[in-house]
Amino acid sequence: MIDIQNITVQFGDRKVLNDIEIQFNQGEMIGLVAPNGTGKSTLMNVIMNYLTPTSGKVGFRDGLVYSSKTNEVKIHQFVSMMPDQSDLYNHLSGRDHLKMFAMMWGSDNKLIDETIEVLNMGHYVNKKTGTYSLGMRQRLCFAMQIVANTEIMMMDEVMNGLDPNNVEIISRLLMKKKAEGKLIIIASHLLDNLEKYADRIFLFNEGKLVDANEIIDGFSHAKIKTIRVKNLDEYIKRDLQQSYPSIEQQTLMNDMTLLHLPHSEASLLSEMTTFLVEKDVTDFNFGKVTLNDLYAIYYHEVI
Ligand SMILES: Nc1ncnc2c1ncn2[C@@H]1O[C@H](COP(=O)(O)OP(=O)(O)OP(=O)(O)O)[C@@H](O)[C@H]1O
Predict the structure, then answer these.
(1) What is the per-residue pLDDT across 93-121, written as a single tens digit (0 to 9) for each?
(2) Which of the chain's termini has less CB crowding within 10 Å, N or C?
(3) 108 and 185, same domain (yes or no)
(4) Whose Cα sits closest to atom 31 in ligand 1?
């Protein structure tokens, strides 16, 4: 568990984090989403005590806080941050790195071989990391954190440079870790992936963390209350506005128009299907607002 208590981080006159108060629990996957430079890494750095906040504190289990070096050592036994690719030693192999992490966190050596197998790293793990591609290095960094096997795992852009198959493999392994009761916090721009796996998603706004459900009511529930239409003509939008004034329209920068229905009754859904098909509109789907939509709406990429 992490209890973030009134954390403020100020650089110059800018409050990157402004009096943040939130709890994250074991067995949860938390997604942090925001444009570049809004404070995701800053928050993780405060949780790791790499950065001392201007005010506030972070509490962990057994009432532990970063009040001394001894406490920091205790906390870092169960909280870890995924290493960065620049932390790798080019002259050592991937296996050397995994052994080092297993030793530092006192993990079972069996976990090294299991992780290598799950992440399909067998063909390269004994070579020096200086010879690895970007995706190979990224998988190794992830593997190192899995081998550390801490109760709380934080990852900044874990999916960077990974192909779709590896994104899926890593996502499944993360789900397994979550089921084991780990608390996983991920900052990511891979919104489809986060939406699929995260239990709670927070967006940053002017130093505050905002729950996605507060932005659009019931965001995480699968109720059909939205029709997403690609390239909807202006005259159809006007027709729709006149015939169905209670349906709110929102057109995003990517030319996707969201039609927000006041309720999700089957009769309204079939009425809307008929309306669109009669106007030769076929590129649409019913669903919920996606995290990609929500992001575009929230960060004002609306026409
Ligand atoms: N040590 C520092 N001194 C001054 N400003 C800083 C410092 N660290 C971060 N910042 C500023 O704080 C803001 C938030 O940075 P942060 O690294 O947390 O962003 P982020 O959301 O993680 O971005 P990205 O998606 O690019 O990783 C940025 O404007 C950054 O320039």
Answers:
(1) 999 999 999 999 999 999 999 999 999 99
(2) C
(3) yes
(4) 37
